[in-house]
């Protein structure tokens, strides 16, 4: 393939998507990673990949190949036996970023941080004061509120949790929660005290959604989380745990109307069970509460608690 063609990366990625079908590998353009639970299985997987390379008439650069590694850096993240970790060299560099002087610098900072959003619980709520400055017609104001949000976000990115690699042979658990300003969710796998996060997600509510009732905001959190994690949970067994008990009847409504009807229809496409948990047992709710308490001290959330 000639260099410089505008559609070359997309075309090559389609080739690699076809190449890796049926193989336990990740492939992003010309980077291929083989993941195996044991050394013997790794040798068998290597043989299968080498055969596929020959079938596709592709070659691997021997000098760039690494074999039998316990951890591998891939797309700015570390893939390890324990799970997926951030590259601490990159996140530690975030600590040295000075406060932005204008909207363009702030947007650059938020874009850098958003790459690690799935490692940060309630990312959108934390970044809300900064995100508000990037809106159209927003006047630039770097007050104590924005300074504290800036520092809080940097600290969250320096020590993020290790994310578990998804096991598609096991069921998933989604915990959700909603505040007056944002919805949050975490995708988990495991049982009881052995539950491990696969990915965190959050987003701010728009002005119309902030007017929803508590039940509707909690329902929105569930529907949004299911669509957000669809790539993991499609055709899998899912349990959705929420602190708001009325959500359990959302799927059982005989004649729902309006947005509840649309949400109920979306829920029917998933193989899920709804589970009520006390607020103190909800990991996401606890994290959201702690974050909101910090944000309240920063005077950026006045009525969420």
TrEMBL record:
Domain Reverse transcriptase: start-end pairs: 1-79
Keyword Repeat listed: no
Protein EC: 2.7.7.49
Transmembrane residue ranges: none
Cross-referenced Gene3D superfamilies: 3.10.20.370, 3.30.70.270
One MF annotation (Gene Ontology) recorded for this entry: endonuclease activity
InterPro entries, sorted: DNA/RNA_pol_sf (IPR043502), Retrovirus_Pol_polyprotein (IPR050951), Rev_trsase/Diguanyl_cyclase (IPR043128), RT_dom (IPR000477), RT_RNaseH (IPR041373)
UniProtKB keywords: Endonuclease, Hydrolase, Nuclease, Nucleotidyltransferase, RNA-directed DNA polymerase, Transferase
CDD domains the record matches: RNase_HI_RT_Ty3, RT_LTR
Name of the protein in question: RNA-directed DNA polymerase
Highest classification ranks of the organism: Eukaryota, Metazoa, Ecdysozoa, Arthropoda, Chelicerata
Gene name, Swiss-Prot/TrEMBL: pol
